[in-house]
Design goal:
The chain has about 375 residues and is an alpha/beta fold. It is built from 13 helices and twelve strands. The protein starts with 17 loop residues before the first helix and ends with a helix. The structure holds pyridoxal-5'-phosphate.
């Protein structure tokens, strides 16, 4: 039997404007890490998310690195960060010599538990330890509960940096996550809701911070006709060619969100009744983009586990992935302190991400649905 075409987890979805914008970069010879598309992409992005300023860079990781450098993180400084996340939320802390402290999730949004953040800040403050920054991650297209996090950061003098790499298009009480902290970062990696093949954005309302980020991203070049450097920088700027792709993608963002939410609704309708299957909740404070449809499979009730379901999908040439493995379980980070940890561990044990690309056809979704159904034995008899 012929193998069906592979269904990827979250492949790029290119629209109608991107190619002509890229051509424009070629035709005007702005094939450089500066140019009119970069400026326009920054302006359009800032307007879209509602931030004062945006700085386009080579990746979300680079944006977070700049955000932490500008938060003043130095060797030995503690930085609180979500435990259930991708390693890129943590690595830039280590690039600066900071010490990550992992904080567990709550069950309403799977994001940072503000009560545990408060515990961590209170115990540290009682012994005179000053936490430098909090990296709050917005997972899988959904905002964390920002109001209490903002309040805690103000109370304890901690810089809030939002990792909104997965949450472009989401809302928290009507506004985009990423604009509540001192700075926020987004990613345009190939698997994100919009892509520039690779790229990122730092957003902030602080004009001086944006200017400093732009300078650090450009080898920290001072204003001078020759090359003058009064500090150490990075080569992190986004190419004008890729910014052209980003501008075209940004125009499609709302459509992409609607498409992913529709795919999620189909999964929920078709799989939600299976015993032991539950979907990632949508918290009451805003819109979940469903960048990825995530579900949990309780082995007791379902008669199978997430790994068997994943393998059944793989056998049908469908890419599905377990949820992020909590940072405290990763060999590279296991020596750092963790506050809580059991919620993330449990989610990792039972959680699975289904293909959610906005270009998926109905036929694709049905193929995934049928494979999942046939992999849940308890479901066969109940349907
Ligand atoms: C993708 C991602 C990043 C990093 O973005 P890149 O553009 O791939 O460097 C950071 N944090 C989270 C949570 C991500 O999912």
């Amino acid at each position: 039997m012929a193998v069906a075409p592979r269904i990827y987890l979250s492949p790029p979805h290119i629209g109608s404007d991107e190619l002509s914008l890229v051509m424009e970069a070629f035709e005007t010879n702005w094939v450089a890490p500066v140019g009119p598309h970069v400026d326009a992409f920054e302006r359009e992005f800032a307007a879209h998310v509602g931030s004062g300023h945006a700085v386009a860079v080579s990746s979300g990781t680079a944006a977070l690195h700049l955000a932490l450098r500008l938060a003043g993180v130095e060797r030995g400084d503690e930085v609180l960060v979500s435990d259930l996340t991708f390693c890129a939320s943590v690595n830039p802390i280590l690039y600066e010599g900071g010490v990550p402290v992992f904080v567990d999730s709550e069950r309403v949004s799977w994001n940072l538990d503000p009560n545990l953040v408060e515990d961590a800040l209170r115990t540290r403050s009682s012994t005179g330890r000053q936490v430098k920054a909090l990296v709050a991650v917005h997972l899988y297209g959904q905002s964390a509960d920002l109001d209490p996090l903002v309040e805690l950061c103000e109370r304890y003098g901690v810089t809030l940096v939002e990792d909104a790499a997965e949450a472009l298009g989401a809302t928290y009480k009507g506004r985009s996550p990423g604009v509540f902290g001192t700075s926020g970062i987004f990613s345009f990696n190939g698997n994100k809701i919009i892509t520039t093949s690779g790229g990122g954005m730092l957003v902030t309302d602080d004009e001086a911070l944006a200017a400093h980020a732009r300078k650090l991203a450009t080898q920290a070049r001072d204003e001078a006709p020759h090359y003058e450097h009064s500090e150490v920088g990075f080569n992190y700027r986004m190419s004008n060619v890729l910014a052209g792709i980003g501008r075209g993608q940004l125009r499609q963002l709302e459509d992409r969100v609607q498409a992913r939410r529709r795919i999620f609704e189909t999964y929920r309708r078709e799989l939600g009744e299976l015993p032991g299957v539950e979907f990632m909740p949508e918290a009451p404070w805003g819109r979940h983009t469903r960048w990825l449809t995530c579900l949990t499979i309780d082995p007791e009730a379902a008669g199978t586990d997430r790994e068997e379901v994943r393998l059944a999908l793989e056998a049908d040439n469908v890419e599905a992935r377990p949820l992020w493995k909590p940072m405290h379980l990763q060999p590279a980070y296991s020596k750092y302190e963790t506050v809580g940890g059991s919620v993330g561990e449990e989610l990792f044990r039972v959680g699975l991400c289904l293909p959610s690309g906005s270009a998926m056809t109905d036929t694709d979704v049905v193929r995934v649905v049928e494979t999942v159904r046939s992999a849940v034995p308890a479901g066969m008899s109940s349907l």
